[in-house]
Amino acid sequence: MSFVILAFISVLIKCPIMALPTCLPLESKALYVPSLTSLAETLNEGLKSNFAEVSVEVVECPDLTQEPFTLASKGLGGNPKIIELGGNPYLLPLVHKEKVYDLKNIAKLVGSDPAFIIGAGAGPNPYIGVNCEGIYNLNISNGTVNQLSRISKIDKNDDKSEQITLPNTETRAALMANLLITEGKPGPVIKVHVKRRIGEDNFITTIRKAIEKKYQDKNVGMGGVFVLKEGKAKQHVMRDFSKTPIENEEQLNNWLKFYNMSAPLIAVGTLVNADMDLDLRVQHFHSFSHHGEAGHYHYDTTPETAEYLGYFTLGENIYRIDRPINTHSWGRD
Question: Which residues, if any, are the signal sequence (predicted)?
Fold first, then answer.
């Protein structure tokens, strides 16, 4: 009987029985994948409520290793998966410093090789020595890493943000991450190009709400990259870990450091249209730049000049890894 129980547990946590002490709990669900044509029509209609100029179409993915995107792989195609790793309760009210994840192992856990990984999370604080934002952008193929991820941290001397590119030897994330994992192949994607924000919602929230409205009874997940081509954006960078508990949104916003960062900003992340009974963060995008600014995207602060260009793909499955047992719903903006 004990062997049967152990075998059942090993399936739930996706690892060999002998490795149980070091394994991560994993839950997965299949996602609804509408046609890209249908999705383009949905987004075109939804974005018109918030932007003066809107163009949404299905195209072959351009080479995303080139400017303005400068990603680690050319495309978003090949077995696309949406990943949520850890969660905000590992940061708030007080940090769980033991929650550090190697993305090479996460790729193996979900069966992705090659694995093109982009997304938003907390950066590898053991590497840099302080809490930081993670802007993930790497390719792992047969054990070889092409690491173009950045972190953003606060300089304790002047409170300015500092962007640092991670080396190929550093593939960890900490506490939480929302990731798109694909094989980085060419293929059809959704191209979204909008200008001049006329509503209150940010770019990603507008996309997510359009999907929520259209596919109310379906589970839909999407990930990709966008560039804020013109204007500025409100973004935050986390300070070093708080020594006193952060218990609510007001305390959280006082702890975070907010900046008005300049375009061009290249943002990567994921969004979903529902919690799916998995305690999901419904949207999460971080941006990096080639002028030293990087952080967690909130919204553009120059609506008259704001211009976004993005490429997105739909996830086929969602994987919830190491979901916090004791959870809360705040601090997920």
Answer: 1-19
